Amino acid sequence: MPELPEVETVRRGLQPVMEGRIIARADVNRPDLRWPFPDNMAERLSGRTVMALRRRSKYILADLDSGETLIIHLGMSGRMQIDQHNSAKFHQEAAILKKHDHVVFHMQDGTRIAFNDARRFGAMDLTDTAGVENHWLINKLGPEPLGNAFDETYLFEALKKKSAPIKTALLDQHIVAGLGNIYVCEVLFRTGISPKRKASNLSATRAASLVPAIREVLNEAIESGGSSLRDHRQTNGELGYFQHNFAVYDREGQHCSNDCGSKIFRVVQSGRSSFYCPKCQR
Ligand SMILES: [Zn+2]
Protein backbone atom coordinates (compact mmCIF):
# COMPACT_ATOMS: atom_id res chain seq x y z
CA MET A 1 0.00 0.00 0.00
CA PRO A 2 1.52 3.33 -0.97
CA GLU A 3 2.24 5.65 1.93
CA LEU A 4 2.64 9.42 1.93
CA PRO A 5 6.18 9.43 0.43
CA GLU A 6 5.10 7.16 -2.44
CA VAL A 7 2.09 9.36 -3.18
CA GLU A 8 4.29 12.47 -3.05
CA THR A 9 6.72 10.76 -5.43
CA VAL A 10 3.90 10.01 -7.86
CA ARG A 11 2.71 13.62 -7.60
CA ARG A 12 6.18 14.94 -8.37
CA GLY A 13 6.47 12.53 -11.28
CA LEU A 14 3.14 13.69 -12.70
CA GLN A 15 3.80 17.38 -12.23
CA PRO A 16 5.94 17.96 -15.35
CA VAL A 17 3.46 16.14 -17.63
CA MET A 18 0.19 17.44 -16.09
CA GLU A 19 0.61 20.79 -14.37
CA GLY A 20 -0.15 23.69 -16.69
CA ARG A 21 -1.13 21.20 -19.40
CA ILE A 22 -4.43 20.52 -21.11
CA ILE A 23 -6.25 17.20 -20.85
CA ALA A 24 -7.38 16.94 -24.49
CA ARG A 25 -9.49 13.89 -23.72
CA ALA A 26 -10.10 11.60 -20.78
CA ASP A 27 -11.21 7.99 -21.23
CA VAL A 28 -13.09 6.45 -18.31
CA ASN A 29 -13.18 2.74 -19.05
CA ARG A 30 -15.41 1.46 -16.26
CA PRO A 31 -18.13 2.92 -14.01
CA ASP A 32 -16.23 2.60 -10.76
CA LEU A 33 -13.14 1.64 -8.83
CA ARG A 34 -13.56 1.32 -5.08
CA TRP A 35 -16.56 3.66 -5.41
CA PRO A 36 -18.54 4.79 -8.47
CA PHE A 37 -16.88 7.56 -10.49
CA PRO A 38 -18.68 10.93 -10.43
CA ASP A 39 -21.31 11.62 -13.11
CA ASN A 40 -19.95 12.57 -16.54
CA MET A 41 -16.35 12.33 -15.30
CA ALA A 42 -14.87 12.03 -18.81
CA GLU A 43 -16.73 15.15 -20.02
CA ARG A 44 -15.80 17.14 -16.90
CA LEU A 45 -12.09 16.34 -17.42
CA SER A 46 -11.84 16.66 -21.19
CA GLY A 47 -10.53 20.02 -22.44
CA ARG A 48 -9.58 21.19 -18.95
CA THR A 49 -6.24 22.67 -17.96
CA VAL A 50 -4.59 21.27 -14.83
CA MET A 51 -3.80 24.46 -12.88
CA ALA A 52 -2.01 22.80 -9.97
CA LEU A 53 -1.19 19.31 -8.76
CA ARG A 54 -1.25 19.16 -4.96
CA ARG A 55 -1.29 16.49 -2.29
CA ARG A 56 -3.36 16.15 0.88
CA SER A 57 -2.43 13.10 2.96
CA LYS A 58 -2.43 10.19 0.48
CA TYR A 59 -4.65 12.00 -2.05
CA ILE A 60 -3.38 13.69 -5.18
CA LEU A 61 -5.45 16.79 -5.98
CA ALA A 62 -5.54 18.10 -9.55
CA ASP A 63 -7.09 21.60 -9.60
CA LEU A 64 -8.77 22.20 -12.96
CA ASP A 65 -9.56 25.51 -14.69
CA SER A 66 -13.26 24.59 -14.42
CA GLY A 67 -13.17 25.27 -10.66
CA GLU A 68 -13.29 21.56 -9.90
CA THR A 69 -10.59 19.39 -8.34
CA LEU A 70 -9.95 15.79 -9.31
CA ILE A 71 -9.18 13.74 -6.19
CA ILE A 72 -7.02 10.69 -6.94
CA HIS A 73 -6.36 7.88 -4.48
CA LEU A 74 -3.97 5.13 -5.54
CA GLY A 75 -5.53 2.54 -3.22
CA MET A 76 -3.55 -0.69 -2.81
CA SER A 77 -2.16 -1.19 -6.28
CA GLY A 78 -2.88 1.98 -8.28
CA ARG A 79 -0.13 3.18 -10.61
CA MET A 80 0.29 6.02 -13.03
CA GLN A 81 1.78 4.96 -16.34
CA ILE A 82 3.23 7.83 -18.34
CA ASP A 83 3.73 7.16 -22.05
CA GLN A 84 5.50 9.97 -23.84
CA HIS A 85 5.56 8.17 -27.21
CA ASN A 86 9.31 8.20 -27.31
CA SER A 87 10.13 4.52 -27.02
CA ALA A 88 8.91 1.30 -28.63
CA LYS A 89 9.21 -0.37 -25.21
CA PHE A 90 6.62 2.04 -23.80
CA HIS A 91 4.12 1.00 -26.43
CA GLN A 92 4.65 -2.71 -25.79
CA GLU A 93 4.20 -2.30 -22.05
CA ALA A 94 1.22 -0.02 -22.46
CA ALA A 95 -0.45 -2.69 -24.60
CA ILE A 96 0.16 -5.41 -22.01
CA LEU A 97 -1.18 -3.30 -19.15
CA LYS A 98 -4.16 -1.97 -21.06
CA LYS A 99 -6.54 -4.38 -19.33
CA HIS A 100 -6.31 -2.44 -16.04
CA ASP A 101 -5.98 1.07 -17.49
CA HIS A 102 -9.23 2.28 -15.96
CA VAL A 103 -8.79 6.00 -16.59
CA VAL A 104 -6.57 7.43 -19.34
CA PHE A 105 -5.63 11.08 -19.73
CA HIS A 106 -4.65 12.02 -23.29
CA MET A 107 -2.76 15.25 -22.84
CA GLN A 108 -2.79 17.80 -25.65
CA ASP A 109 0.96 17.37 -26.22
CA GLY A 110 0.48 13.65 -26.96
CA THR A 111 1.45 12.28 -23.55
CA ARG A 112 -0.74 9.41 -22.42
CA ILE A 113 -1.18 9.00 -18.65
CA ALA A 114 -2.99 5.87 -17.52
CA PHE A 115 -4.32 5.12 -14.06
CA ASN A 116 -3.76 1.39 -13.82
CA ASP A 117 -5.18 -0.47 -10.85
CA ALA A 118 -5.42 -4.27 -10.95
CA ARG A 119 -7.06 -4.60 -7.52
CA ARG A 120 -9.39 -1.61 -7.95
CA PHE A 121 -9.07 -0.22 -4.41
CA GLY A 122 -8.17 3.15 -5.90
CA ALA A 123 -10.63 6.00 -6.22
CA MET A 124 -11.31 9.19 -8.15
CA ASP A 125 -13.82 11.92 -7.45
CA LEU A 126 -14.51 15.47 -8.61
CA THR A 127 -15.42 18.24 -6.21
CA ASP A 128 -15.43 22.06 -6.06
CA THR A 129 -11.87 23.28 -5.56
CA ALA A 130 -13.06 25.82 -2.97
CA GLY A 131 -14.65 23.07 -0.89
CA VAL A 132 -12.07 20.33 -1.25
CA GLU A 133 -11.24 20.35 2.49
CA ASN A 134 -14.93 19.56 3.15
CA HIS A 135 -14.95 16.49 0.90
CA TRP A 136 -15.90 13.36 2.84
CA LEU A 137 -12.57 11.66 2.11
CA ILE A 138 -10.64 14.65 3.45
CA ASN A 139 -12.70 16.50 6.07
CA LYS A 140 -11.77 14.25 9.00
CA LEU A 141 -8.03 14.20 8.35
CA GLY A 142 -5.64 15.64 10.90
CA PRO A 143 -2.83 18.05 9.96
CA GLU A 144 -0.20 17.24 7.33
CA PRO A 145 2.95 15.86 9.01
CA LEU A 146 5.12 18.11 6.82
CA GLY A 147 2.90 21.18 7.33
CA ASN A 148 3.08 24.04 9.85
CA ALA A 149 -0.04 23.05 11.81
CA PHE A 150 1.71 19.88 12.93
CA ASP A 151 4.05 20.86 15.77
CA GLU A 152 5.28 19.70 19.17
CA THR A 153 2.52 21.36 21.20
CA TYR A 154 -0.21 20.04 18.93
CA LEU A 155 1.08 16.47 19.01
CA PHE A 156 1.62 16.36 22.78
CA GLU A 157 -1.94 17.64 23.38
CA ALA A 158 -3.40 15.16 20.88
CA LEU A 159 -1.52 12.18 22.37
CA LYS A 160 -2.47 13.14 25.95
CA LYS A 161 -6.08 12.21 25.14
CA LYS A 162 -5.21 8.77 23.77
CA SER A 163 -5.07 5.69 25.95
CA ALA A 164 -4.11 3.56 22.91
CA PRO A 165 -0.49 2.49 22.34
CA ILE A 166 1.61 5.18 20.64
CA LYS A 167 1.92 3.00 17.53
CA THR A 168 -1.87 2.92 17.13
CA ALA A 169 -2.23 6.64 17.93
CA LEU A 170 0.24 7.67 15.22
CA LEU A 171 -1.67 5.58 12.68
CA ASP A 172 -4.87 7.45 13.61
CA GLN A 173 -5.51 9.74 10.63
CA HIS A 174 -7.39 12.22 12.86
CA ILE A 175 -4.17 12.87 14.79
CA VAL A 176 -1.86 13.18 11.82
CA ALA A 177 -2.72 12.56 8.17
CA GLY A 178 -0.93 10.15 5.89
CA LEU A 179 1.32 8.25 8.29
CA GLY A 180 1.25 4.51 7.65
CA ASN A 181 2.59 1.37 9.27
CA ILE A 182 6.09 1.34 7.75
CA TYR A 183 7.06 4.90 8.62
CA VAL A 184 5.53 4.81 12.12
CA CYS A 185 7.74 1.77 12.89
CA GLU A 186 10.78 3.68 11.64
CA VAL A 187 9.89 6.87 13.57
CA LEU A 188 9.44 4.98 16.85
CA PHE A 189 12.80 3.26 16.40
CA ARG A 190 14.51 6.55 15.69
CA THR A 191 13.03 8.19 18.80
CA GLY A 192 13.64 5.14 21.04
CA ILE A 193 9.95 4.89 21.93
CA SER A 194 8.39 1.44 22.34
CA PRO A 195 5.37 0.91 20.03
CA LYS A 196 3.57 -0.54 23.06
CA ARG A 197 3.91 2.54 25.26
CA LYS A 198 0.59 4.23 26.07
CA ALA A 199 0.29 7.46 24.04
CA SER A 200 -1.03 9.44 27.03
CA ASN A 201 1.97 8.41 29.15
CA LEU A 202 4.59 9.97 26.89
CA SER A 203 6.40 12.93 28.44
CA ALA A 204 6.21 16.28 26.63
CA THR A 205 9.88 15.92 25.65
CA ARG A 206 9.48 12.46 24.17
CA ALA A 207 6.24 13.41 22.40
CA ALA A 208 7.99 16.48 20.99
CA SER A 209 10.87 14.34 19.68
CA LEU A 210 8.40 12.57 17.40
CA VAL A 211 7.74 15.67 15.28
CA PRO A 212 11.24 16.14 13.80
CA ALA A 213 11.65 12.36 13.51
CA ILE A 214 8.42 12.06 11.50
CA ARG A 215 9.54 14.86 9.17
CA GLU A 216 13.02 13.35 8.77
CA VAL A 217 11.76 9.86 7.99
CA LEU A 218 9.19 11.14 5.49
CA ASN A 219 11.59 13.56 3.80
CA GLU A 220 14.27 10.89 3.46
CA ALA A 221 11.74 8.55 1.88
CA ILE A 222 10.54 11.28 -0.48
CA GLU A 223 14.14 11.97 -1.49
CA SER A 224 14.88 8.31 -2.10
CA GLY A 225 11.59 8.08 -4.01
CA GLY A 226 12.82 10.93 -6.17
CA SER A 227 15.97 9.05 -7.08
CA SER A 228 14.12 5.82 -7.76
CA LEU A 229 11.70 7.89 -9.83
CA ARG A 230 14.51 9.02 -12.07
CA ASP A 231 15.47 5.36 -12.56
CA HIS A 232 11.88 4.34 -13.21
CA ARG A 233 11.29 7.07 -15.73
CA GLN A 234 14.33 5.85 -17.64
CA THR A 235 13.01 2.29 -17.77
CA ASN A 236 9.24 2.19 -18.11
CA GLY A 237 7.58 5.47 -17.17
CA GLU A 238 5.75 3.84 -14.32
CA LEU A 239 5.07 5.74 -11.11
CA GLY A 240 4.09 3.81 -8.04
CA TYR A 241 6.31 1.80 -5.78
CA PHE A 242 9.89 1.63 -4.69
CA GLN A 243 11.91 -0.19 -2.09
CA HIS A 244 13.68 1.57 0.74
CA ASN A 245 16.11 0.25 3.27
CA PHE A 246 14.36 0.27 6.59
CA ALA A 247 15.96 0.11 10.03
CA VAL A 248 13.26 -2.04 11.63
CA TYR A 249 10.36 -2.53 9.23
CA ASP A 250 10.14 -6.16 8.02
CA ARG A 251 13.40 -7.05 9.79
CA GLU A 252 12.16 -9.46 12.45
CA GLY A 253 14.98 -11.59 13.86
CA GLN A 254 17.74 -9.45 12.34
CA HIS A 255 20.32 -7.62 14.44
CA CYS A 256 19.39 -4.13 15.62
CA SER A 257 21.24 -1.57 13.50
CA ASN A 258 22.29 0.30 16.68
CA ASP A 259 24.55 -2.69 17.50
CA CYS A 260 22.89 -2.97 20.90
CA GLY A 261 23.15 -6.76 20.71
CA SER A 262 19.41 -7.32 20.48
CA LYS A 263 17.37 -8.56 17.56
CA ILE A 264 14.34 -6.88 16.01
CA PHE A 265 11.04 -8.14 17.39
CA ARG A 266 7.61 -8.18 15.79
CA VAL A 267 4.32 -7.72 17.62
CA VAL A 268 0.82 -7.39 16.14
CA GLN A 269 -1.06 -4.25 17.25
CA SER A 270 -4.53 -3.36 15.93
CA GLY A 271 -4.02 -6.01 13.27
CA ARG A 272 -0.76 -4.50 11.98
CA SER A 273 2.79 -5.74 12.52
CA SER A 274 5.03 -3.50 14.61
CA PHE A 275 8.78 -4.05 14.30
CA TYR A 276 10.96 -2.74 17.11
CA CYS A 277 14.09 -3.24 19.19
CA PRO A 278 13.12 -4.13 22.78
CA LYS A 279 16.47 -2.85 24.05
CA CYS A 280 16.60 0.53 22.26
CA GLN A 281 12.89 1.35 22.46
CA ARG A 282 11.30 1.95 25.84
ZN1 LIG B 1 18.66 -2.00 19.58
UniProtKB/TrEMBL annotation:
Protein known as: Formamidopyrimidine-DNA glycosylase
Gene Ontology biological process: base-excision repair
GO terms assigned for molecular function: 8-oxo-7,8-dihydroguanine DNA N-glycosylase activity; class I DNA-(apurinic or apyrimidinic site) endonuclease activity; damaged DNA binding; zinc ion binding
EC number(s) reported in the record: 3.2.2.23, 4.2.99.18
Residues the entry annotates as binding DNA: H100, R119, K162
Cofactor: Zn(2+)
Cofactor notes: Binds 1 zinc ion per subunit.
Domain of life of the organism encoding this protein: Bacteria
CDD domains the record matches: EcFpg-like_N
Formamidopyrimidine-DNA glycosylase catalytic domain span: 2-122
